[in-house]
Description:
By secondary structure, this protein is mainly alpha-helical. Helix content is 57%, strand content 0%. It has helices spanning 18-44, 51-70, 73-80, 85-89, 109-117, 123-127.
Amino acid sequence: NExxxxxxxxxxxxxxxxxxxxxxxxxxxxxxxxxxxLPIVHRRKNLPHGERERDFQTxxxxxxxxxxxxxxxxxxxxxxxxxxxxxxxMSMPPVVTWRYNWAPEAGTxxxxxxxxxxxxxxxxxxxxx
Length: 129
């Protein structure tokens, strides 16, 4: 029951409004992405980071791998249908770590990620003013 991220567009069951409306939605996402993402990159690119941040990154990537191997329909279909394992696993991150029953230390940025972002949340309803 742990979210793997803070949102996104999930396409497996997306069939809203037919092709034209679906394409228009994707076009709008693509058109808005760079303008929304670049300010974040520019604001954060010089933030210091070290071993603690890298360690947490590889842990989170391990959680992503767990999800993909256990729950992701596309990954499971590929593995169960005899697809090329190398091709299926190519999307996995190259370096990951796992820890048993890990929890972030209180007061850290990692703890804030869990308490403020990686919890069930209706982002759209919260954004509506």
